[in-house]
Amino acid sequence: MEASAAERAGRAIVALRHAVLAALLDGESSGYQLAKTFDLGMANFWHAVPQQLYLELAKMEKSGLVEGRNVVQESRPTKRLFTITGAGLAELERFAAAPVKPSFVRDDLLVKVQAVDSVSVKAVIEQLEERAAIAAAKIDIFTRFLHGLRGDLDEQAFLTSGDKIGPYLTCLRGLRFEQEHADWCNETSRVLRARQAITQEDAAP
């Protein structure tokens, strides 16, 4: 039986909770710092806006998964820092041991490519090229982020003996996804442009 909207939303909230716990493994963090982490290091596999993070942190603190403390700042608002608790670590351990559900893709651009034989080819080509440009920008971000994580080590040395391998591996997955995505968008754009040129030649008087 298909899950209801409420059930799907509940699963999303639970998964966000685990993503926050994983982010807090790096140490004490404010909600703002967590938002920056989600915007960069975790953006390739989990998206969350700051408001979602702040609400979830409040719920997690109430349930004992994280612990918060206030830090008074001169000429700036007091900020609240959060750390993962023993209960939070136990919950993350339980989550890590649970069976993994298959991932799935929902991409409006792929729907447009699927329908390209009956819609404006020009519009689809433009969106493919725009998506390729976005992927290229992400490739640059991930490449620099990975270099920052491994420092002076080359990649193989870091994969063998570097510290905090988890964030590196997830970012490596993001890099490879964006590289493949950019290649596919560029190739698909070239195919559609070539077919469009042939069609225009055939239609010429």
Give a concise summary.
This protein is mainly alpha-helical and 205 residues long.
Number of helices: 8
The run of helices and strands is HEHHEEHHHHH
What is the number of E strands?
3
First-to-last CA distance? 57 Å
Largest sheet: 3 strands, antiparallel
Portion of residues in helices? 55-70%
The rounded Rg comes to 22 Å
Mean pLDDT level: 87
Helix-and-strand structural type:
mainly alpha
Q: Are there runs of 5+ residues with pLDDT below 50, and where? A: 1-13
Main β-sheet, spatial strand arrangement: 1-3-2
Shape: elongated
Strand content: 5-15%
Task: Describe this protein's structure.
There is one protein chain. The protein is mainly alpha-helical and 205 residues long. The chain contains eight helices and three strands. A three-stranded antiparallel beta sheet has the order 1-3-2. A hairpin with a 2-residue loop joins strand 2 and strand 3. Helix 1 packs across helix 3 (50-62), helix 2 (31-39) packs across helix 3 (50-62) and helix 6 packs antiparallel against helix 8 (165-203). It is elongated, with a radius of gyration of 22 Å. The model is unreliable at 1-13 (pLDDT under 50).
